[in-house]
Amino acid sequence: MATDWQLEYMPCAICESEESYFLFWARDWLYGNQGRFSVVQCVRCGLVYINPRIAPNQIASCYSDDYYAYDASIRPNNSSGAKLKGHIQSLVAEEIYGYPPGTAKLPNWVPSYLIARILKGKGWYLSRMLPWREGGRLLDIGCGNGTTYLTRMRTMGWDTYGVELNDRACQYAIAAGHNVFCGQLSDAAWPNDYFDAISLWDTLEHIHNPTQVLTECHQILKTDGILALSVPNFGSIYARMFKDKWFMFTAPLHCHHYTFDTLKKLLDKCRFRVSMVEYPLGESGIAESLRNYMRFKGHSPSFMRSRPLNILLKLLDRLAPYGHIIVWATKPNRQQ
After folding, report:
1. Mean pLDDT, to the nearest integer, of 88-92?
2. pLDDT category, 74, cuts 50, 70, 90?
3. Are 245 and 288 in contact (CB under 8 A)?
4. Whole-prediction pTM value?
5. Three-class SS of residue 70?
6. Element spanning 314, H or E
7. Which residues pair with 199 in a beta bridge?
8. How many CA within 13 A on the CB side of residue 76?
9. How much is the CA Rg of the chain, to the nearest whole Å?
10. Distance spanning both ends of the chain, measured CA to CA
11. Phi, psi values for residue 295, rounded to 5°
12. Which of 169, 176, 200 is nearest to 270 (CA)?
């Protein structure tokens, strides 16, 4: 991969202050991009970000061809495990989020609402839910190949749209039947007050100009519309322990690193009102972070290939909380 990056110094994306202090140097432990990147924290608002960063017109070259959101089959997963997940999703959607009855059929004596409350948040795939809006339009920014989230939401009754920069991923998503624009959100030219919901799942940390993008989201979202997003939680113990070795840090692809405090400041600036926050189980990246740390120390992580240890680490990855922040926010009307 290229190493002659065009680097740019930027002020804080939230408060626009140019005052920051150095935290640590970061490497790319996942995709092998060469070089090291300076991680700083804004003195005024506390946002952590890479500065200087790779210019937006070069960052696409940092993504590998097998990046997980791009390279996927559009064939549906019909395994028994996938079907079970589908039933659980339907149960949570119906009992918690007000979706019409679907495939989740339980005997009348079963306390389905209680079961749904227990299950909610116990699986990463259950956390990316939206309250029901009949006939609603959903826009997923950074939708990737669209064959998991957008396809699932379409089966649940949403009219699905997406924005994606990668051409190959766009073709997957379009072939799957979604309305996807390939390019920048600002170039899509959707009318104001057009969408009932907008999602950014693990996308905001990649975006160089988050204030501009969220301001555009505010314009095209209907009043009382839903903004749902997730970001790696830089306030977590995993981030403090592993720093750039944390699997979710992913320099230089992730140029901003949020805590709930800095995320709320950004949403407030863009006139969104936070309605709910969750820290779901899973997506902590413990196993890969340990591998990165071992490599950093010059040790082979081969001992981690043992089956018992792998099972333990996978269990930790599934059950460890606070690796991600999920926020739901609304666009209030002008009188609120």
Report:
1. 80
2. very low
3. no
4. 0.90
5. coil
6. helix 307-319
7. 140, 228
8. 11
9. 20
10. 50
11. -65, -40
12. 200
Cβ atoms of 243 and 189 closer than 8 Å: no
Which 3 state secondary structure label does DSSP give 112? helix
Question: What tokens does 229 get?
Answer: 């997003």
Residues with Cβ within 8 Å of residue 168, at least 6 apart in sequence: 70, 71
| DSSP type of residue 233 | B
Q: How far apart are CA 27 and CA 89, in angstroms?
A: 37
Number of neighbours of residue 276 by Cβ within 10 angstroms: 11
E runs forming strands in the chain: 7-8, 20-26, 37-42, 48-50, 53-54, 137-141, 159-164, 179-182, 195-201, 221-232, 256-257, 273-278, 324-330
pLDDT one-digit tens code per residue, 276-317 = 998 888 788 888 898 888 888 888 767 667 778 878 888 887
Average pLDDT over residues 152-159: 91
| 16-22 CB contacts, 8 Å cutoff, 24+ apart | 17/42, 17/43, 17/44, 17/45, 19/43, 19/44, 20/51
pLDDT digits (tens, 9 = 90+) for 177-189: 999 999 999 999 9
**What is the β-pairing status of strands 179-182 and 256-257?**
unpaired
CB 332, CB 224: distance < 8 Å: yes
Residues forming beta bridges with residue 26, ordered by sequence position: 37
Instruction: Say how many C-beta atoms besides its own lie within 10 A of residue 1's C-beta.
Output: 12
Cα–Cα distance for residue pair 106/104, rounded to 1 Å: 6
The pairing of strands 137-141 and 195-201 is: parallel
Q: Strand order of the sheet with strand 256-257? A: 20-26, 37-42, 48-50, 256-257
CATH number attached to the domain at 134-330:
3.40.50.150
Which tokens go with 145? 């190949």
Establish whether the linkage from the previous residue to 252 is cis, with ω within 30° of 0: yes
Tokens of 294: 């071992």
pLDDT tens-place string over residues 227-249 = 999 999 999 999 999 999 999 99
